[in-house]
Amino acid sequence: MRTAIPVVGVEHKATKQLSTLFRLFEYFKPDRKQIPIALMFVIYGSATQAIGPFLIGRSIDRLVRNGNITELMEVLAVLAIIYITGVIAIREQIYRVGSIMQKVLAQLRQDIFTKIQSLPISFFDRSEAGDLMSRLINDVSTVNQAFGQAVAQMLGQLFTLIGIIIAMLSIDLRLGLISNLIIPLMLLTTGFFSRWARSKFRVTRQTISQMSIKLEEGIGGVREAQAFNHVPLDIQEFMILNAANRDANVQAVAITSAFLPSIDLLNSLATAAVLACGGYFAVAGTTTVGTVISFLIYVQQFFRPIQILSQFYTQAQSALAGAERIFKLLDEPVLLQDAEGAIEMPPIQGAVTFDRVNFGYTTDRLILKDVTLHTKPGQTIALVGATGAGKSTIINLILRFYDVTAGAVKIDGIDVRSVTQASLHRQIGLVLQENILFSGTVAENIAFGRATATQVEIEAAAQIANVHEFIVQLPQGYRTLLGERGANLSQGQRQLISIARAVLVNPRILILDEATSSIDTRTEILVQQAIDKLLINRTSFVIAHRLSTVIKADRVLVIQQGKIAEQGTHQELLKQQGIYANLYGMSLR
């Protein structure tokens, strides 16, 4: 069997680019009825560009032959009409093609955002937010630059080039063939530079992604960077990434800067060939002066479309590199899809069962090992244990952010994998240590899980969460706009708003993950009072390091190395003088 590894590599790259291009074409289907109209304007505009030099040559020949000024003026009037209508057609083609492309790009952005929102939590465990932002903004912007208005120009120039070639061959076959002899050299030059540029543009997309990651980290962690005197190191790291991006772009520009003069040189050679051969033919009487002048104009017009098409091709290399990254994200499998025939989760009573559950974030390491537990409706279960023991993993499995490796998680006897995720999440409330508030009003943030809630319901939830008094003191009350992630609020205030959010959803199962940590004592009292109200008649799982939360739990589960090491009430576990008693003595006081 013969091997051809290098050829396969080249074929693979070409196939990959074609595949990416065809996928982009799929986005044009909704506007397929508009495309023929746009193409009509493209063809007409190109035809006006091709017919102009022919009329100019004819008018010169007639003027030289018989000196008929009237006939010359008639030809010039026709030429003016053609050029004016051509300008209108070109305007229409740019508008229509540009409009179609912007719809395509808008849909592309929508698909990326929708995909990101639908991906499982496990995807974000191994992905950088900055890289995702780069794909949504930078890569789409690169596609926009290449395929936005450039597509309209590229199509126009392509048809113009075809029209010019037909016109030249029709007017004078000999001069037409001489002019077109330069085309193979142009194709070889374009192919050489494009292959050289392709790898450089891929590097630019990668370095932009790395810069976006660093920028996102720098903005999000500016307080920590300043507090730990890490600012100089962050600046140095960004400088290195910035330099890498600069160098990659400089190399790409160097290729482009060498390419354009090469095309100009070929243009000059073609012009010289037309002058030499055309002059000879004119002197010999086998062609006319007007024909030679027409060809000189055609040669100038001939190379302009090739230059624009070549520039577009070079620019398209960067766009295709960005599109490859976009489609790689869109092709990311959604591992946690609803099962075929998944049912709506019935109204939850609150019995949660772990039936010999094993789970690992990776295939080579289990986080939970043979975990079995059963809770009754309305119970409050406290999860305690060292960091990394598996507490957060347990609540992630209840929410079905991940699927178990073995065993089953059931609610009211129903395997969570057999119900739709939306119907499951509708009946589970979540309050985290670091709750995210979104750009918008206070009311919108409280109603985040129930957008149809009335103002009365929102305010009632805020009162239960002990945050109503604070909200009404804000400049615009519930209509006050919050900064990004609620940065203009304290940690405790954000926590109370997130509790109000959970109250409004009225969940049957409530999950609290370190909900009373990182806040001052006074606010903790308000938060704890709100939580106490929220826990009533709900099954609750509470991860806490504060004694005030743990001692009220109906059952405490001590998680150690992925197993339930101890369980019982607070008092029962203290009497055992085991792991819990040790944790209580060390950190729960």
What does this structure look like?
Mean pLDDT is 80; it is low at 1-11. The protein folds into two domains: 16-330, ABC transporter transmembrane region fold (Up-down Bundle); 352-588, Rossmann fold. It is α/β, with parallel strands linked by helices and 589 residues long. The protein has a six-stranded mixed beta sheet with strand order 6-9-10-3-11-12, sandwiched between helices. It has a four-stranded antiparallel beta sheet with strand order 2-1-4-5, with helices on one face. α2 packs antiparallel against α3 and α17 packs parallel to α18 (521-535). It has 21 helices and twelve strands. The longest helix has 54 residues, at 231-284. It has helices at 5-26, 34-66, 69-118, 121-125, 129-147, 149-171, 173-180, 182-220, 222-227, 231-284, 289-330, 391-398, 421-425, 442-446, 455-464, 468-472, 491-505, 521-535, 547-550, 570-576, 579-588; strands spanning 352-359, 368-375, 380-384, 406-411, 414-415, 428-431, 440-441, 481-482, 509-513, 539-543, 555-560, 563-568. β1 (352-359) and β2 form a beta hairpin. It is elongated and about 120 Å long. It starts with a helix and ends with a helix.
Structural class based on helices, strands and sheet pairing? alpha/beta
The tally of strands reads 12
Q: Compute the number of helices.
A: 21
Determine the N-to-C terminus distance.
73 Å
**What number is the mean pLDDT?**
80
Instruction: Identify the CATH architecture of the largest domain.
Output: Up-down Bundle
Over all CA atoms, what is the radius of gyration?
35 Å
Number of domains as seen in the coordinates? 2
For the largest beta-sheet, the strand count, sense and barrel status come to: 6 strands, mixed
